[in-house]
Specification:
Blueprint lengths: L6 E7 L3 H18 L16 E7 L2 E10 L5 E9 L9 H14 L4 E7 L3 H6 L3 E2 L4 E3 L2 E9 L20 E6 L11 E6 L12 H11 L2 H14 L8 H22 L1 H40 L1
Parallel strand pairs: 4-5
Antiparallel strand pairs: 1-2, 1-10, 2-3, 3-4, 5-8, 6-8, 7-8, 9-10
Helix pairs in contact: 4-6, 5-6
Length: 303
């Protein structure tokens, strides 16, 4: 997808059959075809009552996410966040996440949880999410439980919208219509895009790290946090603020290393292999169960 001077990203609840079909098509393209986390189809029982959301550019749906309430009062879950590869440099993910958070909040939710793939943890933290417990494996990929409070969740105020201005690229948002769940228009986000930069894989890892630190504003954040912690006196354990910026740096370092070594591609391949293995074992169990049922039925008939 070619970046324009201004790229309008529209986010809305999928109500029409076309939007719902496009929502599932994006999920299948990412979670089945690209990442291999699911085999054949990623749909499950939660889809029946879920709020399905799409993001579109120039009428083409390029992103999706779903959300639904859980049994605990006020608790919502968001998952199946997916953006097509050719739209990932345009800034589609943040509007989708913020739209889902605000929609759940306007529906009476007080807290939202999600399982986040490890490379995306830093991105979610910049959107206000926090880690909940230790990471674990889900369908062959490492996921971090995360959560966010829903009270008053709205797009970021001020002249800059969903994300801070980044090198060569700035973001501005404008909400149109009524509440997301009641408006046919949903939210409209205008992305002012600069020149597309070369893929990270083609650059040296050290240069990537410096550029990413600059883009994410981590250099100033780290310097300020460390200075404040040192100025407040000695500590037996690291202050929470120090731990937070250290986690940000670890997430970024892991992401850079994954891209430089191709480890993310290896994980996707391993995920596809694991999914295929699970499918074979499930089929074997099903075949054994059918065989056992036939054998019992035959024995009952002979008696």
């Amino acid at each position: 997808m070619e970046l324009c001077a201004r790229t309008v990203v529209e986010v809305r609840v999928a109500r029409s059959p076309a939007d719902i079909a496009a929502h599932h098509a994006v999920r299948e393209a990412v979670f089945v075809a690209e990442q291999g986390i699911f085999e054949g189809d990623d749909r499950d029982a939660w889809d029946e009552g879920a709020v399905k959301v799409v993001a579109s550019i120039s009428g083409r749906v390029v992103g999706a996410v779903r959300l639904y309430p859980l049994d605990e009062a006020g608790l919502w879950k968001g998952d199946r966040l997916a953006v097509l590869p050719d739209a990932r440099t345009v800034g589609v993910g943040a509007p989708l996440v913020r739209f889902a958070v605000a929609t759940a909040g306007e529906a009476g939710g007080t807290r939202m949880i999600a399982l986040i793939q490890k490379p995306n943890v830093a991105f979610f933290r910049r959107l206000g999410w926090s880690r909940q417990g230790e990471p674990g494996e889900f369908r062959g990929a490492t996921h971090q439980p995360m959560a966010i409070a829903l009270a008053g969740a709205q797009p970021a105020p001020g002249p800059w919208g969903p994300e801070r201005p980044r090198s060569g690229r700035a973001f501005r948002s404008a909400r149109t219509g009524a509440a997301p769940r009641d408006s046919e228009d949903g939210w409209r986000w205008t992305t002012i895009a600069g020149e597309r930069r070369p893929p990270m894989a083609s650059q040296k890892a050290t240069k990537d790290l410096i550029e990413q630190l600059h883009e994410r504003g981590l250099r100033k954040k780290v310097a300020k946090t460390v200075a404040e912690a040192i100025g407040s006196g000695s500590h037996k354990t690291a202050p929470p603020a120090i731990v937070e910026v250290a986690d940000d740096l670890k997430d970024l370092a892991d992401e850079i290393e994954d891209r430089a070594t191709g480890r993310s591609a290896k994980r996707r391949a391993a995920g596809r292999k694991a999914a295929a293995t699970r499918a074979r074992k499930a089929e074997a169990r099903s075949a054994a169960a059918r065989k056992g049922a036939r054998r019992r039925a035959s024995g009952a008939t002979s008696r």
